């Protein structure tokens, strides 16, 4: 029986292939192009026959999931993101969000607590004063936005892995999932390997000053090995879990791993 043709009403096959290739990590992308980038090859890769717009979207999601798996496999937990001297800091450091600065959350430190949930021994909530009392380190690292720009900033806070150890987190779990205070309910998961990376930080200060509202007061998660959208701001809760709960941008098709 002859294989039925691909029917893609309203979907440009060339653009679909182009978008799929962009979603692949570099090594996979090179091999895929070398082997002949085609819709048939994507079907073999994902097991998804593209017959309409919905299955085209499903194919892209499967490519994204494949990308996440490859990047996770390639991730070196001992490799550090580059650090920079103070002279390299970007001034002014840009504000970036899917809302304006006037719409950014305004949080009263007296009312704020970090909620801890999931696979941890100690589920107490933490006040800002308690978190500020923890040992802190400073890193000058580059923030890389998925939109193509980057900026270097100075960030001070507690390594996330130290906090996870302090609360008795099960570091065999797959994810640390963060909830934020913005009006859209921003949330994002970190794979546990990245959460335990030495540069992944619970950030309380920017440029040696209390973290400004623009950059996520009272706490953001600074992850220099990830793209910017994997650095949640205005964090109000974290959960250690084996369940993949999605995320604000991840649910819209962005790669969950999105890092080096």
Automatic annotation (TrEMBL):
<dbReference type="InterPro" id="IPR036374">
    <property type="entry name" value="OxRdtase_Mopterin-bd_sf"/>
</dbReference>
<dbReference type="Pfam" id="PF00174">
    <property type="entry name" value="Oxidored_molyb"/>
</dbReference>
<feature type="domain" description="Oxidoreductase molybdopterin-binding">
    <location>
        <begin position="104"/>
        <end position="249"/>
    </location>
</feature>
<dbReference type="InterPro" id="IPR000572">
    <property type="entry name" value="OxRdtase_Mopterin-bd_dom"/>
</dbReference>
<protein>
    <submittedName>
        <fullName>Molybdopterin-dependent oxidoreductase</fullName>
    </submittedName>
</protein>
């Amino acid at each position: 029986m002859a294989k039925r043709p691909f029917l893609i009403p309203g979907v440009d096959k060339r653009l679909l292939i182009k978008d799929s290739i962009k979603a692949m990590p570099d090594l996979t992308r090179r091999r895929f192009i070398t082997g002949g980038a085609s819709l048939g090859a994507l079907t073999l890769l994902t097991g998804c026959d593209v017959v309409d717009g919905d299955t085209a979207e499903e194919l892209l999601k499967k490519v994204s999931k494949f990308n996440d798996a490859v990047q996770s496999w390639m991730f070196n937990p001992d490799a550090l993101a580059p650090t920079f001297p103070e002279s390299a800091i970007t001034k002014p450091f840009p504000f970036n969000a899917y809302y304006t600065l006037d719409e950014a959350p305004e949080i009263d430190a007296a009312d704020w607590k970090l909620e801890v949930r999931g696979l941890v021994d100690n589920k107490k909530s933490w006040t800002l004063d308690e978190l500020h009392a923890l040992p802190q380190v400073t890193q000058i690292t580059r923030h890389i936005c998925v939109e193509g720009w980057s900026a270097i900033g100075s960030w001070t806070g507690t390594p996330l892995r130290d906090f996870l150890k302090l609360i008795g987190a099960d570091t065999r779990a797959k994810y640390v999932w963060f909830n934020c205070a913005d009006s859209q309910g921003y949330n994002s998961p970190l794979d546990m390997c990245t959460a335990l990376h030495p540069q992944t930080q619970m950030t309380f200060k920017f440029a040696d000053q209390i973290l400004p509202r623009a950059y996520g007061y009272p706490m953001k998660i600074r992850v220099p090995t990830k793209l910017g959208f994997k650095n949640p701001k205005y964090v109000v809760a974290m959960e250690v879990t084996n369940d993949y709960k999605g995320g604000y941008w991840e649910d819209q098709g962005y790669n969950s791993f999105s890092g080096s």
